[in-house]
User: Fold these one by one.
Assistant:
Number 1:
Amino acid sequence: MIEIRNLSKIYKTKNGHVKGVDNVSLTIQEGEIYGIVGYSGAGKSSLLRCINLLERPTSGGITVGGIDLTSLKDGDLRLARLKIGMIFQHFYLISQKTVFENIAFSLKAAKTPPGKIKNRVEDLLEMVGLADKRDVYPSQLSGGQKQRVGIARALANNPNVLLCDEATSALDPTTTKSILNLLKKINKELNITIILITHEMNVVKEICDRMAIMQEGRVIEEGRVYDIFATPQEELTKEFIESVVSFEMPEVILNKCKGTIVKVLFRGEVAGEGVISDTLQQFNVKGNFLHGSIEYIQESPLGIFVMELKGENEEIEKALQFIKNRSAQVEVLRDGV
Ligand SMILES: Nc1ncnc2c1ncn2[C@@H]1O[C@H](COP(=O)(O)OP(=O)(O)OP(=O)(O)O)[C@@H](O)[C@H]1O
C-alpha cells in the first residue's frame, strides 16, 4: 500500500514560490493500477517524483509498503528506491549502450552478482517481447520498443511499484494500446502496483482501477474510474470525460428538437434500451434517440443515451420518474419548447 499524507511541494524560483503539489493525500492499494490525470502544470509529475523522493516533498509523508520514505537516510533510501521502478515519456535510454547493456546497467547499479545478470536480462527481454533486439542500440528501435526496454529496465530489480510518467504520450494509438496491455500483464502477473500520470483520459479508461484528477497542485476528485465516468462531480472531470465520451450535439439538430431532451445513464448489466422501450410503451410519450453509446470501463458497461421525449408535460414527468427509478442518472438537458 502507498500512502501519501498531506504532501506539498513548493519550488523556490527567482520569481517567488511555486506550489507544485498542494496538500495531497491519497491511498493506493497494493496491486492496483492508479491513474493521476490533469492538464499541464497541474502537479502530476511533481507528485509522482515525490513518491520515490526524486523530489523531496516540502511537507507531508510518503509510506510505501509500510516504510516511511521521508524518514530514510541516503543508503536506506537507495535500497527502498530499488523497489520502485519508473518509466518516462522520453524513455531515457543510454544511447551508447545496447538494449542488453541498458537493462544490465540497472542490475549492476543494484550490485547484482555478475553471474546472475545475463539470465535476468534475457528473462526481462522475453517478458517485454524484445528477445530479438538484445544487441541493438536504442536508435535502431521504434518508440514502442524503446518503452519496452524502459519497462524491462524498470522491472530489473523486482520492484513492487512501477511509476509511469506519461509513458505513452509520445506513442501512436496502436503502440499506446500495446504498451498499456504490457503494463496490464505486468500488473496481473507480477502483482506490481502501478501509478501512472497522464493527460489522456483514454489511458485511464483503458487500464486504471482508480484515479485522481489534479488541478493547481490539488486533487479535486478521486475514486473508481467507473464511478468517475458514471457520475463526475467537478467541471474539470466532466471536461476530461468528454474528451473520450462526447455527447456534444450540433446546434442545428438541437434547434429541430422541440421536446424535452434528456441524458440517461445506465450502469453495469442493466439493459438501457429495454427500460427506454418500456417507458415508451407505458406512457403516452414519443421518444427519439439523439445519441447513444455503451462504454466499457474495465469491462463493465456504462450506457449513456441522449433522447428527446415528446408529449404532455404530465406524461413526460411520469416517464422521467419511471426512467429515474431504473437508471443510474437522468439529467434534463433542455425542457421542451
Ligand atoms: N523544478 C521546478 N522548479 C520550479 N517550478 C516547478 C518545477 N517543477 C515543476 N514546477 C512547477 O510546478 C507546477 C506543477 O508542475 P508539474 O510539472 O508537476 O505539472 P504536470 O501536471 O506534471 O505538468 P506537465 O505534464 O506539463 O509536466 C507548475 O506550475 C510548474 O511550473
Number 2:
Amino acid sequence: MIGYILLASGIAYVAWSLACLEINARKALALGIPIVRLPIDVNNIFWILLQPHIWKVLDCLPFPWASYPRVVRYLRRGWYIPAKAESHVQLGPVWALVTPVAFDVHVAEPDAILEILTRRGDFQRPIAELKLLELYGPCISTAPWEDWPRHRKPIATPFNETLMKPIWDESLRQARGMLASWVAKADAGIPSYQQDTRTLSLNVLSAIGFGAFHDFRRSDEPVTDEIGGYHDSLKTVLDNIILLMLVPFHILAKLPGRYARIGRAGIDYKKHMVKLLEDETAALGQGKPSSGAIMPSFVRAAELYHREQTANPESHAKTGKSGLSVEEILGDLFVINFAGHDTTANMSAFAVVCLAAHPEVQAWVAEEVALATKEYTNMEDWDYKIVYPQLKRCRAVVYETLRLYPPVPALPSITSNRTHTLRVDNQTFTFPAGTKFTSNLRAMQTHPDYWPDAGEWRPSRWIANPAPTDSPLTQETMTRERFQVPDKTIFFPWGEGPQVCPGKKFAEVEEVAVLACLFKVHRLKIKKRHSTESDSAVHKRFEKCINDIDLEMLVRLRDGDQVTLVCNEA
Ligand code: HEM
C-alpha cells in the first residue's frame, strides 16, 4: 500500500513539475527568445544533494563533457564556467533557461549587459537570494535599491586614491615575504601557492582596512596566530563561509570538535569587529589617528545614525534613515572582508600559475619591471606614484587573468515591479516584473565575436603601441606602450554602473605590486614530476589544472596544487 502511495506521489510530482515547466516555457517563448528546458531546478534541495553523485559517475565515463546534451550539462551547478561563451554562440545573445520553478534570461551582449548594470533601479539585485550574506547583520548586498546608497556611501568613501600608496607599500611588503619563503623552498617546490596567495590577500586587507598588520607566513610554516585572535578568527570564518551561512555560529559553537572551533571563530570575529568599532569611535573622539582606513567612515555613519535616532525617534524608525546602525556596520564590514579577500586571492592564484606556464610572459613582464625600477636599490623604496603607472604589462596580466577567470563569472538581477524593455542585438524585448536575468560576464569575456583567440591567455592583447619584440625594451619604447581596454562594454569583471565594485583599484594595485616583486629578479616554473617528464606533458598537467575550476562561492582553481611551482633567481 505504502509502495503505491509513494509511486502515485512520485508520478504526481513529476506530472506537476512537467506542467509547471511547460507553463514557464510558454511564458519565456512569448518573449520571443530561444529557450532551453531543464526538468529540474538546479536549486532544488534534493537535486543539490543528489547531483554530486551523478556527476561523479558521468565524470568517470570515457566521454568528453562537451558531448553530453545541453539538458544534462546545464543541470550541473556552475555549468556556465566550463561552457564559456558556448551557449551564447549557439543560442544567440539572449536566451532563457526554463525550469519548473522559473525562467532565467541569460544575456551576453555588450550594450545589453551595460544597460542592465547601469539601470540598477530597473534591473535590481535579487536580494532575497543573497540573504545568506547577512551573517553579521543587514548589509550592502541585501539592501533594497532605495536604501542601498546609505550603505554604499560609507563603504565607497575610503576607497579613494589616497588609499593606494598604503596598499602598494603593504602589498610589496607581503610579496617580499612570500618571495623569500618561496625561494627558501628552492627546488623542492612551493607547498601551496594557492594558500599563499590567499594569505597575502588577507594580510593586505587586514592591514589596510583594519590596521591589523601581520608578517607573511608560508602555508607549511607553523601557525603562530593566537586562536581567537582577529586574524585567526577572520581566516577561519572565511575558510568555512558556506557552513557558517547555513548554520548560525552560535549553534556550531555548541557542536563537538572542528564545528565548535568554527562556531567560536564566528563569535570571536564579531567581538573583534565590535571592539574595533568602539576603539575607533573613542580614538576619533579624542582626535587620535585611526588604525585602519575603512573604520573612520563607519564611525561617522554610526554617529549620524545615532544622532538622528535620538533627535527624531519616530520619523527615524518609519521613514528613510541616515547613517548606519551597529548591526548594519558589522554586516558591511563582513561583506568587505568577504568581497575583498577571495576575489583578489583567486585572481592572484590564476595569474601566478598562468605565468609559471608561460616563461615568455614572465620575461616580458620582467623586462618592464626592471626598467621601471632601475633607479631603486631597495624594493622598499619603490614609489607608488612613479613606479605603478609604468607597470602596464603587469596590469595587462591582471586584466587578462580576470578576462578568462573572473572571480564573479555572472551577475544576477531581477526586474523591479513593472515591465521593462531591453534592447539586445538591435531588437527591443519587453520583460514582465520579476523576470530573472543572468548577465553572463565570462561568456562576454570569452566570446569569439569580440575577442580574437578568445580562449588564449595572452596579456599582450591589452597593450597598444607594443615595443618591438626583436630589440630590448628602452625607456622610450616603454613609455610609448599604452595600456588599453579594447572596449569597456565587453569586459565587466568588477561589474559596472552604480554598484560597480568599490575595491577595483585596491585589487589592481595589490596584484601589480605582487607581480612586480615576484618577477623583478625571480622566475617561476612548474616542477617536473620526474627528470624525464617532457615539456608537453608538464603543459598538459597545467592545462588540466587551470581548467579544473569550481564555483563554491567564486570562481577558483579546484586544486591549484595539482602542479607544484618552483621559484628561482633568473
Ligand atoms: C579581483 C578582485 C575583485 C573582483 C573581480 C570583484 C568583483 C566584484 C563584483 C563583480 C561586484 C558586484 C558588482 C555588481 O553587483 O554590479 C563587487 C562588489 C563589491 N566588491 Fe568587489 N571585487 C574585487 C575586489 C574587491 C575588493 C579588494 C574589495 C574591498 C576591499 C571589494 C569590495 C566589494 C564590495 C563592498 C562590493 C559591493 C558593492 C555594492 O554593492 O555597491 N571587492 N565586486
